[in-house]
């Protein structure tokens, strides 16, 4: 299979060197697809390019690509972005080596596992490491959904079981009926007429989890593959952007086929948080997303009363925002 080459290089002379190295003397399996003269022309070319499984390498010489280009690249599971520093001279061998290395690294990515059957009404809540609020979201979202649907809350957090405790039951409780429409269940059912809302805990290293045979990683990946919808939470922290990239890569590559909703939780109004918000919005691109405000007072009131926000702070901005997430799920 031919591998396409797309270039976006400011120096036409260096671009000629790159293409000479790859098309004439270097890798026989590549062919030139497009030479971009501007970022706008490149984005337009990719937007009109059919979304197939064919691979291509985008060779560029910029430190940071635009969000519009990132969105288009994420459409292609076989896209390889490669920044290369412009150097004029006898560098053909070095260019060939760099491109071959990029191809080898692409080949080492584990192939998608055979997908399990997706399960209707299964919603998985997960998130970044460092307590992004997945358990709190599961609890409050369950209460919102239970206003119109039958909901089963399932605590599959690998490290701690807080769901029942936050609602006033013992941590060891596996079956608690909270209302006619809402209950805590100990196990995930293969078939259920109710919405099964699962607290899955923090995301592991997904790149290795798909090939990891150990139970925790295997169970987590199976859960994501079975889910009809995945809700991923993160807080405005630079470190959490890396974990966001991990789940986006799995979605874009087709390893995970569930509907995805991304939530930036505990949002304040500092310059740093606004900067991360812009990056978050640019990265999630085509996927649904939501911002939740930081509201410690309402959360403390709910925690002290062993209740959901719906019961103790129904008019708070945080409760209304979670209600909007529930609305997305019920559409």
Core attributes:
331 residues, alpha/beta, Rossmann fold, 8-stranded mixed sheet, 12 strands
Q: Beta-sheet strand percentage?
A: 15-25%
The name CATH uses for the topology of the largest domain is Rossmann fold
What's the end-to-end separation, in Å?
42 Å
Shape: elongated
Spatial order of the strands forming the largest sheet: 7-8-6-9-5-10-11-12
Structural class: alpha/beta
| Contiguous helical run count | 13
Sequence of secondary-structure elements: EHEHEHEHEHEHEEEHHEHEHEHHH
Tally of separate domains: 2
What is the mean predicted local confidence, pLDDT? 85
Largest sheet: 8 strands, mixed
Question: Measured on Cα atoms, how large is the radius of gyration?
Answer: 23 Å
According to CATH, what is the class of the largest domain?
Alpha Beta
CATH superfamily grouping of the largest domain: P-loop containing nucleotide triphosphate hydrolases
Uncertain parts: 107-112
Provide structural commentary.
The protein is an alpha/beta fold and 331 residues long. The protein folds into 2 domains: 3-107, Rossmann fold (3-Layer(aba) Sandwich); 122-330, P-loop containing nucleotide triphosphate hydrolases (Rossmann fold, 3-Layer(aba) Sandwich), CATH 3.40.50. The chain is built from 13 helices and 12 strands. An 8-stranded mixed β-sheet has the order 7-8-6-9-5-10-11-12, with helices on both faces. A 4-stranded parallel β-sheet has the order 2-1-3-4, with helices on both faces. Helix 1 (12-25) links the parallel strand 1 (3-8) and strand 2 (30-35). Helix 1 (12-25) packs across helix 4, helix 3 runs parallel beside helix 10 (271-284) and helix 9 packs parallel to helix 10. The longest helix has 16 residues, at 92-107. It is elongated, with a radius of gyration of 23 Å.
